[in-house]
Design brief:
The complex is a heterodimer of chains A (about 300) and B (about 375). Chain A has eleven helices and four strands. Chain A has helices at about 1-35, 40-55, 60-85, 95-115, 140-165, 165-175, 175-180, 185-215, 215-235, 240-260, 270-285, and strands spanning about 120, 130-135, 135-140, 215. By secondary structure, chain B is mostly helical. Chain B has one domain (about 25-35, about 50-360): ABC transporter involved in vitamin B12 uptake, BtuC (Orthogonal Bundle), CATH 1.10.3470. In chain B, a hairpin with a 2-residue loop joins strand 2 and strand 3. In chain B, helix 3 (about 50-75) packs parallel to helix 8 (about 185-210) and helix 13 (about 290-315) runs antiparallel to helix 14. The mean pLDDT of chain B is about 85. The chains are: A mainly alpha (about 300), B mainly alpha (about 375). Chains A and B meet through helix 4, helix 9 and helix 11 of A and helix 7, helix 10, helix 12 and helix 14 of B. Chain B: Keywords: Cell membrane, Membrane, Transmembrane, Transmembrane helix. Chain B: It is found in: Cell membrane.
């Protein structure tokens, strides 16, 4: 019984850290440009497929292709911002949301044109097959490495935001665009960089998810929607919030499907619980756990 | 008022009442009447095949739903990514009756206008409940709250045995004065039924927008603090906009259930919600006739893409599934292009056309 609990705990942390990495992409974009990128799941999927194509078809070692795909999505996401969102700066929220929704559809269509649209793919095995077990609780090597890479990346991103010049200018833009502009920060460039950074993290998330669960477009782009509750729970503009909320949400989902499904005539609770939590959070703490208070009541 | 009541030659309004008329001139009114008569007569003159009649019925139902969405999103500025769930609430209200009293009970087959009305009220109730977060949330947060209603709705239906876990629940054919509506005239009958309901609702909304409540909606959209200062109640207005949107959606849902003679969850997915939003935007947010242009444009695009990919499939050797790729691609492109180049939607083209014909032969 105890080992079942710990098994759920471990898989909750694994799922949660992937959530955290995916949520990071939302946070990076929202933090600087106040845009919620609904097409993020598609960018994650794109990154995963590029990694797969480079590793399996072009036969490049996984580590190199992992970085290559991160670089490719870096520029892809930057050009997406350049083409679609640059001219929408200052437009009402609904336009921006709808453009990212339209973007989601376009990327869907493009991915369906590639062989990745409908089939399942799985990465070749890179790590030892025998999982690490400890008292009945087991973690596969892929999961372990995935979690480690996730935390390294998140640490790198938060360092980048805290210390580097570009990171500080991005924070300045998120605080006050006009003030940032007046001290000589190029706001459009920062927006582009934020998207690029989000694309980079999305590719990393895609690669890790692809290694852990296999590649399937439907599950990958569903990720974009699943991560919403995580981002809201953590607060839309907090990296720490994204990490904490990711892990909380992962744990809740795993425990819900481990303990609730099959009892009380429930099934698929892991899918709906995040949204119920999301509604409760929105009602009582609309800015999330770590977000900045900016909701006004009317 | 100018002496000429058929053509306008400028602004000669002497009272607010004159300015708020639904039809500015007699010409407008006559033109609209002729248009309505044409809408009723054309299926009798050129009877379309069932396939196309179904598409037209779908457009009209979508117009009912988008009319509601346009109230919430276009006029009151409340983004709703869960509109298909409200449509689903309406459809599942009909399904609820079908499940409890049998799908061919007199209540469902004979008293169908009542069922449609009740579904509308069910939608309005859920709309008001989901609108409650609007008291505290704005913009993005509200959009996500409605999104979570969509997710919770889908899960609830998928999970409940009572609603066959999202499998299709059948609903019997309805009766009319002439007896049961047969298979052959099913789509034609519903064309007329939906058309009448759509016209009634359209006039209702048009008149609502001329009242204090309609102006409240727009005021709250433009600046809710200013609206508050002017003595309106923004919170109440928002909840009531959601309830109205829910009512329209509920009516659309019941019509959908009757048209397809069954209710299944796949018609009320997140994708449908996004489609409704796209319709509202392509048609023109915050305009009444945009709610008719949008559904027509999107459904026509769908039909067009389907025909194109069918044709391409016959020419190209069967390599890939073009339909699954082209559908989202064209849909997304239409949304993005409209938002980038014509954010005011097709309604704006109509406005330009109208002002051109009104002023012709003068430029301005």
């Amino acid at each position: 019984m105890m080992s079942y609990f710990f098994q759920l705990l471990i898989s909750g942390i694994v799922v949660g850290s992937i959530y955290a990495l995916s949520a990071l992409g939302f946070v990076l974009i929202y933090k600087s440009s106040r845009v919620l990128n609904i097409a993020h799941g598609q960018i994650i999927a794109g990154g995963a497929f590029i990694t797969y194509a480079l590793t399996v078809w072009a036969d490049i070692p996984i580590y190199i292709s992992f970085f290559l795909s991160m670089i490719i999505t870096f520029f892809l996401a930057m050009s997406v911002e350049r083409i679609f969102l640059r001219r929408l700066i200052g437009e009402p929220v609904i336009s921006v949301i709808m453009v990212t929704i339209g973007l989601m559809s376009i990327l869907d269509g493009i991915i369906y044109l590639t062989p990745f649209g409908s089939e399942n793919f799985s990465f070749p095995v890179f790590f030892p097959k025998t999982p690490i077990s400890f008292g009945g609780v087991s973690v596969s090597w892929t999961q372990l490495v995935g979690v480690i890479i996730t935390f390294l990346l998140i640490a790198a991103f938060s360092w980048f935001f805290k210390k580097s010049t570009i990171g500080i200018s991005m924070r300045a833009v998120s605080d006050d665009q006009l003030a940032a502009m007046s001290v000589g920060i190029s706001v459009p460039k920062v927006f582009g960089l934020a998207w690029a950074a989000a694309g980079l993290s999305a590719a990393a998330a895609g690669g890790i998810i692809g290694n852990i669960t296999g590649l399937n477009f439907d599950t990958l782009h569903a990720f974009g929607i699943t991560v919403f509750p995580v981002v809201i729970l953590g607060g839309l503009d907090s990296i720490i919030g994204a990490v904490a909320a990711g892990i909380i949400m992962g744990l809740i989902q795993q425990f819900a499907s481990g303990y609730l499904d099959g009892h009380f005539g429930l099934s698929g609770t892991a899918e709906v619980l995040p949204y119920i939590i999301l509604l409760v959070i929105l009602l009582f703490k609309p800015h999330g756990l770590f977000g900045i208070h900016e909701i006004e009541r009317v | 008022m100018a002496s000429n009541r058929w053509l306008t030659t400028g602004n000669y309004f002497t009272s607010y009442k004159q300015e708020q008329r639904i039809f500015l001139t007699h010409l407008d009114r006559t033109g609209f009447l002729i248009f309505l008569i044409l809408l009723f007569v054309w299926p009798l003159v050129f009877p379309p095949s069932n396939k196309y009649m179904l598409v037209i019925d779908n457009i009209l139902i979508a117009a009912v739903a988008v009319l509601g969405l346009n109230i919430a999103t276009g006029f009151a500025g409340l983004i709703s990514i869960g509109h298909a769930a409200f449509v689903g609430v309406g459809a599942y209200t009909a399904a609820f009756f079908a499940k409890t009293i049998g799908d061919s009970h007199v209540f469902l087959t004979h008293a169908w206008p009542l069922v449609i009305l009740l579904s509308g009220f069910a939608g309005a109730f859920f709309g008001a409940v989901v609108g409650l977060p609007a008291l505290r949330l704005k913009h993005l947060y509200l959009a996500i709250a409605t999104l979570s209603f969509q997710m919770i709705f889908t899960w609830t239906i998928n999970f409940m045995d009572f609603f066959d876990q999202g499998q299709t629940i059948p609903i019997a054919r309805v009766f009319w004065f002439t007896g049961e509506v047969s298979r052959k005239e099913h789509y034609l009958f519903w064309y007329y039924a939906i058309l009448v309901i759509l016209i009634l609702l359209g006039f209702m909304i048009r008149n609502l927008l001329r009242t204090r409540y309609g102006r409240c909606l727009v005021a709250v959209r433009d600046n809710d603090r200013a609206a508050d200062a002017m003595g309106m109640h923004p919170g109440l207005t928002k909840v009531y906009a959601f309830a109205l949107a829910g009512f329209m959606a509920g009516v659309a849902g019941a019509l959908h259930a009757y048209l397809y003679r069954g209710v299944g969850i796949e018609s009320f997915s997140l994708h449908e919600s996004i489609t409704y939003l796209a319709m509202a935007i392509v048609g023109g947010l915050g305009t009444l006739h945009g709610s008719f242009w949008g559904p027509a444009a999107i459904k026509m695009l769908d039909l067009f893409v389907e025909n194109i990919s069918e044709y391409a499939g016959s020419v190209l050797p069967a390599t890939m599934n073009l339909t699954t790729a082209l559908r989202p691609l064209s849909f997304g492109l239409v949304i993005v292009l409209f938002l980038m180049f014509e954010p005011r939607g097709i309604a704006n083209w109509w406005r330009i056309f109208r002002s051109y014909t009104r002023l012709w032969p003068f430029r301005y």
